[in-house]
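Researcher: Let's do a round of design. I'm pasting the structure tokens now; please hold your answer until I've finished.
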């Protein structure tokens, strides 16, 4: 591993074709960016809201992301990945606070999420495929979290692949039967696909992998678009894995988080689902994608996934057509959220958003099928216990989560009105019968 201060970086888009996007530079502690003149000919917009394709040098107008534009900040790992890099450079005599965002992008190089890559490239990769042993990796991760040093840090840094999030994880190539897990080949072997596999952090319960898998299956039953998921490992030690949607075979796909797209801080509550649906409409120009976003909002609210910050929503760009779509869902799991509230509010409500707020959100965005969507999600969440049992979630965790979920499916508005009308009519009918009986009694001698 090496360290040389990166004051100038070339940015590339490695999609259907490799395009030079532009250059990043540091000057007077500010980060400058300029699109490459040849990139204009592609007609592509990699970040249309905050960094539209145009001529000239630009500087982000916010100190957020340490001066980076959001589209480049999306390439940087946080949490676990940042910890690994900080520990690794300290071994080289570099104080972690001295690393600039451009330094960190150079360590991501060509091995980050999405399709952007950076040169010079300080990242390291194994020349030959390495067979991964998950239990050993989980133990190594626990050692690092406990403050351990040594070669294990650089090993895990190579396996991290620029992924974000607080929990330890590795990117890997997995065989179709899920029995072989490798890392490192430049070209994807036949029958393999790209996956991400997570391990518990020091704050997680032992069954965290099973919980996330149960949530993925519950989301699938709710109609949420989510990639293939799997529980890897032995019976007692299970690790959650999810197939990567920023890879199609060996092709990389440009990915942009909602946080990076809108320059919204993901560390503190900063957005409302109203903004999420509005951004989806403007970016994709597709009502089906907006409906997809609404369904995900329903799931997060009704399934108590309160870690729904803007970095946990992303969009994908087809660089052959220029069309944006909402990325499949990820990081779906039970969470109490910041201060016990939803990270993203629903029509201004963060502490206790519910069906009424979701209905208001749907009406504002013209989602015609909102009652059907809400009921489909409610019906799936109501079956939490069956998903927990199938995934092997502990009884303690299943009970705790179940006690905080919706107790029963709600009746649709139309059906509720019809039922209320029947109830209102029933006493009147009884009273009418009683009055009739009374009149008959009067006639009797």
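Researcher: That's everything. Go ahead.
Model: Designed sequence:
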């Amino acid at each position: 591993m090496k360290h040389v201060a990166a004051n100038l970086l070339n940015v590339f888009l490695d999609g259907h074709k490799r395009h030079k996007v532009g250059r990043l530079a540091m000057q007077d502690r500010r980060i400058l960016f300029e699109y490459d003149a040849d990139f204009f000919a592609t007609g592509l917009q990699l970040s249309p809201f905050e960094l539209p394709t145009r001529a000239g040098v630009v500087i982000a107008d916010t100190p957020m992301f340490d001066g980076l534009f959001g589209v480049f900040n999306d390439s940087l790992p946080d949490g676990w990945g940042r910890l690994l890099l900080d520990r690794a450079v300290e071994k080289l005599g570099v104080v972690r606070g001295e690393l600039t965002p451009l330094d960190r992008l150079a360590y991501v190089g060509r091995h980050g999420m999405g399709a952007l890559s950076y040169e010079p490239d300080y990242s390291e990769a194994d020349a030959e495929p390495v067979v991964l042993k998950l239990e050993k990796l989980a133990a190594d991760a626990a050692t690092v979290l406990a403050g351990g040093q040594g070669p294990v840090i650089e090993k895990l840094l190579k396996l991290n692949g620029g992924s974000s999030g607080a929990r330890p994880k590795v990117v890997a190539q997995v065989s179709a039967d899920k029995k072989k897990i490798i890392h490192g080949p430049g070209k994807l072997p036949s029958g393999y696909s790209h996956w991400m596999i997570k391990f518990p952090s020091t704050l997680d319960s032992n069954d965290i992998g099973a919980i996330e898998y149960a949530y993925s299956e519950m989301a699938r039953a709710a109609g949420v678009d989510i990639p293939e998921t799997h529980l890897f490992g032995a019976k007692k030690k299970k690790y959650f894995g999810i197939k990567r949607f920023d890879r199609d075979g060996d092709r990389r796909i440009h990915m942009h988080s909602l946080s990076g797209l809108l320059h919204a801080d993901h560390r503190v509550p900063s957005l409302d689902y109203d903004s999420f649906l509005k951004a989806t409409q403007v970016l994709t120009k597709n009502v089906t994608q907006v409906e997809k976003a609404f369904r995900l909002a329903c799931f997060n609210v009704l399934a108590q996934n309160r870690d729904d910050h803007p970095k946990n929503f992303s969009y994908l760009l087809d660089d052959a057509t220029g069309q944006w779509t909402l990325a499949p869902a990820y990081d779906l799991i039970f969470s109490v959220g910041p201060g016990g509230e939803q990270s993203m509010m629903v029509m201004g409500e963060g502490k206790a958003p519910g069906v009424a707020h979701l209905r208001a959100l749907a009406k504002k965005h013209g989602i015609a099928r909102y009652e059907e969507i809400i009921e489909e999600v409610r019906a799936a969440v109501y079956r939490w216990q069956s998903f927990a049992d199938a995934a092997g979630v502990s009884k303690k965790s299943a009970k705790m989560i179940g006690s905080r979920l919706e107790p029963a499916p709600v009746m649709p508005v139309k059906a509720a009105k019809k039922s209320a009308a029947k109830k209102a009519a029933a006493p009147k009918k009884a009273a009418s019968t009683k009055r009739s009986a009374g009149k008959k009694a009067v006639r009797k001698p």
